[in-house]
Amino acid sequence: MRPSGRNLDQMRPISIETEVTKHAEGSCMIKVGDTHVLCTASLEERVPPFLRNSGKGWLTAEYGMLPRSTGSRMRREAASGKQGGRTVEIQRLIGRSLRAGIDLVALGERQITVDCDVIQADGGTRCAAITGGWVALRLAVNKLLKAKDITTDPLMDPVAAVSCGVYAGQPVLDLDYPEDSEAGVDGNFVLCGPKLIEVQMSAEGSTFTRDQMNELMDLADKGVSELVAAQLEATG
Question: What family does the entry list (predicted)?
C-alpha cells in the first residue's frame, strides 16, 4: 500500500493554471499533488555571444525553491552568494529538456528564459518544473506566432517529465516525498512525444533488474501521456 493510498500506476492530481503573472510572455502554475511550481517564459531579442549572427535562437532555464517550500525553512541561496550543486544540476536538466523540443533555427535570433520557482515541494519538483516550463514556453511562442515575429512553429511534441521508482519492492508511478525518501530505486523520465530525452536512474540501498526497468518505463509512458493531455488542455 502506498502512503497516499494511490494505485501503483496512479498519478497525483494534476492541474495547470495559465497566465498567472502579468508581465511574462508565458506563465503557469502547475500543481502535481502537493508540489506546486510557478513557471514563466521570458522573451528577449538577443542571444548569447556564441550564437550572434548564427541565425539560431537559444533557450535557457533557471530553477529555485522558496525558503518555506519545504517542511522547515531553507536559507536563500542568494544569502550564501552561490547556487547549490542540486540547483545547478536541475536547471541544466530543465534547459536541456526544453531545448530538445524546440527548433532553434525556426525560433530565430532571440532567447527564451524559462524560470521555475518551487512554491511548495512534495517530491518530483524537477519533473513538475519541466512539464510546467513547456506550458509557459508554448504560451510565449504562441505570442511570437500571433505577432508574426516568426512564421514557423518551432515547438515539436510536448516535453513532459515524471518520476518513477521501486517502493516497498513494487514499481510505482509519480513518487511523492514520503515515497521518494524511502524508495530503494528512483528515477526521472523526460520525454518529447514518444522519444526519450533523458532518464536519471539510481539505486540506494537496493538494486533493480532489467524487467523492473522496463516496468518503470511503462509507468513513465502512462504518466507522461496524462501530463501531456493536461498540457494540451491548458494551452488550448
Answer: Belongs to the RNase PH family.
Quote helix, strand, coil % in the chain, to nearest 5.
35, 30, 35
For residue 119, give Cα distances in angstroms to 36, 115, 125, 205: 5, 12, 10, 30
With contact defined as beta carbons under 8 Å apart, do 202 and 185 qualify?
yes
41 touches 143 (CB < 8 A): no
What nine digits make up the cell of 166? 521501486
Residue 104 in grid coordinates: 532553434
Binding site listing for phosphate:
86, 124-126
**Residue 102 DSSP one-character state:** B
Enter the C-alpha cell of residue 160: 513532459
Give the chain's domains with CATH numbers: 14-235 (3.30.230.70)
Q: What is the pTM of this model?
A: 0.96
* Binding-site sequence positions: 86, 124-126
Q: How far is CA 134 from CA 50, 127, 168, 192, in A?
A: 24, 11, 33, 10
Q: At what angle do helices 210-235 and 125-146 cross, to 10 degrees?
A: 40
pLDDT in tens, the chain (236 residues): 899 999 999 999 999 999 999 999 999 999 999 999 999 999 999 999 999 999 999 999 999 999 999 999 999 988 888 899 999 999 999 999 999 999 999 999 999 999 999 999 999 999 999 999 999 999 999 999 999 999 999 999 999 999 999 999 999 999 999 999 999 999 999 999 999 999 999 998 788 999 999 999 999 999 999 999 999 999 99
